[in-house]
Design brief:
Chain lengths: 100, 417
Amino acid sequence: MLLIDCPFCGKRPELEFRYGGEAHIARPDDPSEFGDKAWGQFLYGRSNQRGMHAERWRHVHGCGRFFNALRDTTNDRFAATYKIGEERPALPEAQGAVEA
Amino acid sequence: MQRFSALALIRHAFTGHKTWRPQWRSPEPKPRYDAVIIGGGGHGLATAYYLATEFGIANVAVLEKGWIGGGNTGRNTTIIRSNYLFDESAALYDHAVKLWEGLSQALNYNVMFSQRGVMMLAHNVHDQQSLKRHVHANRLNGVDNEWLSAPAAKAFCPPLNIEASMRYPVIGAALQRRGGVARHDAVAWGYARAADALGVDIIENCAVTAIRRGVGGAVEAVETTRGAIETRKVGVVAAGNTSTVMAMADLRMPLESYPLQALVSEPVKPIFPCVVMSNTIHAYISQSDKGELVIGAGTDAYVSYTQRGALHVPMHTLEAICELFPIFRRLRMLRNWGGIVDVTPDRSPIIGKTSVAGLYVNCGWGTGGFKATPGSGHLFAWTLAKDEPHPINAPFRLDRFRDGYLIDEAAAAAVAH
Ligand SMILES: Cc1cc2nc3c(=O)[nH]c(=O)nc-3n(C[C@H](O)[C@H](O)[C@H](O)COP(=O)(O)OP(=O)(O)OC[C@H]3O[C@@H](n4cnc5c(N)ncnc54)[C@H](O)[C@@H]3O)c2cc1C
Ligand SMILES: [Zn+2]
């Protein structure tokens, strides 16, 4: 089970959280200008990153708040958690691929 | 190919069974092939086999980064059924079941396909309505599926608990008698051996690292850990790693890869005659010919490529198993593992062409593609050979996520299978 560092409450077991899918997928500002292909990508296209993945979590059985996290999907290790609205933190390149 | 038969068994007994040859060669990659299949799981190997036998394209390589069948093909709980709700899905999965019925003969390999029946339990009124709707939809599509009362379900599967005192009592079940299980490894090996005999090169320990494209963006070659290989046709059948491979051709897929777990108990004498699934309390179970109970758990919640998951996920399933089959409460569990399943938004697969000329994809089988292995391979081989989909896989095109023509088995079943 993952140990997740909620930016509001600190480290808690995964069971207290709900996964919220890939982060930083912004809804289009002007939907009428958005073509079918772009809508399809917005709704369904995902990076499904093998490596560092930006994702949302919600601390449902805690503070109830959404936040973002960077996690390496090749070893499930979190590199950072950060509040909604904050920039995705820059990480040193090497951090992604260390362990198999 | 050394054919397997009772006579061959006796003949080789005289030489102490030391004269059997390896079931497939282990060739060096050639510089050029007519088609390259990325991924040596059941679906990729079946694709190569049907390309060679049905479409006369035998100059084919199957490139596998590990060993064949080491992906989800060798990790799944082998449930086979075709009682899906929508017309498109019923046609797709029943095409596969029909091929399963003759597969051991066709491959000269015992894939141990056993039509012992797949029973899906109803625990509440909604389940009952939904399963009965499936029964009727299936009947209209010529797919067998029947409704059983709770006592009839128990008669079919004696270990089942139907006491009213259960937290989620069993109120009935839908039974597909043509459903069942098969031996996962044998499916990979059987297709590999038969494809190899027709001239297909099966190249293990060979990961594809790049897809090279030429004029107009058409596929020209693949780069691999064992050198570059030229080809005009590439079929991607990489299950959980599909997004990674497709990104090599700059395509972003409607897929997310999750760990899906399964586990087996210590082996016991034959006690469990069929396959039982419960979508509502999430458990599915059968017994292997070795005697282990084979139990499928759910997916972990997050994208991951680790081929493992957290313990609370199988624990949840075991709680359901203990409630449904109290007789198994004191059994010990032997092994637990995970595979990475590629899940689409509508829980239906993608089999077809892409916007890149010469690049084809067969993916999105998610938690339930083992059952489709022969059909998927056959339809994908057709698509590769003719550069157009077979009518059965035409609705399962990649563009459906742009055009909104989803085949929403997610809403229809909402369960791993
Ligand atoms: C625990 C579990 C239980 C399941 N239970 C069932 C069930 O009961 N019934 C059912 O119908 N389905 C079930 N499934 C789903 C089923 O296993 C899959 O849908 C099916 O096996 C997929 O077959 P495949 O050949 O496409 O994939 P795989 O067997 O995963 O093959 C894909 C191959 O591609 C290779 N590959 C990936 N990237 C590269 C690369 N860059 N270069 C070269 N090779 C590459 C991989 O190594 C892998 O061997 C289950 C899955 C799991 C994990
Ligand atoms: Zn919190």
